[in-house]
Amino acid sequence: MLVDSHVNLHHEKFAGEVDRIIADARAAGVSAMLTISDKISSSDAIRAIASRYECVWRSVGAHPHYASDHLDVTSQTLASLAVEEDVIGIGECGLDFHYEFSPREAQQRVFAAHIEAAQATGLPLIIHAREADDTMGSMLAAAMGKRPFAPLLHCYTGSLRLAEEVVGMGGYVSFSGIITFKNADAVRAVAARMPHDRIIIETDCPYLAPVPHRGRRCEPAHLVHVADKLAEILDRPRSEIDDMTTGNFFKLFKRARRPGENS
Ligand SMILES: [Zn+2]
29 CA distance to ligand 1 centroid (A)? Predict the structure, then answer.
């Protein structure tokens, strides 16, 4: 079985099709998934989707693109939204200095609140980092020195150095369909250097459809192509990739129960 560690099921591109999309994912061997919060105001919609399926968990948090709309969000607010048992992570949150849709200071302030929420709840921190490796590395290291938490770099495309820093803190790195893209040698090189007990995979659907679906709408079922490519990069059998990434997912997301497992 595979677990898709990052899907955006409340995205308008999936409206009215979530039943079919989840059925297709399960038929492809993607047995469970974590659907991600982009804004606090999306929480009700995301909760409604997660509550319909035993195989769907959710996160709470605000994407750095929307940091300007979340300047008042405190770690207490995030922690209180995270008490429900289908919430297994904090985020996605972080720093995006590539698009910089919100000012950098706003992004850092909102990200700091998410780090505190991860520290307070013990839930993993789902991190979006784009062209902000230095600031990201220093914010994570400073916070980790105060109180430990579990960082996950999602849809990773950054430097080997930041990935190694996060692994050194006990964190994890997640790779998406980008590893199948022709021009992504640098990302594949980072994946090849990661310890096998710290690698997780995701689709980030509806974005970033892997080859051979590139350019079309991505779905969780497409995770098999990410797994196939990772098998090729690490020169390991596909079955081993499935066991490794699924095992790593459940080691990191401790609140998640394997489907069928009683609480
Ligand atoms: Zn992201």
Answer: 24
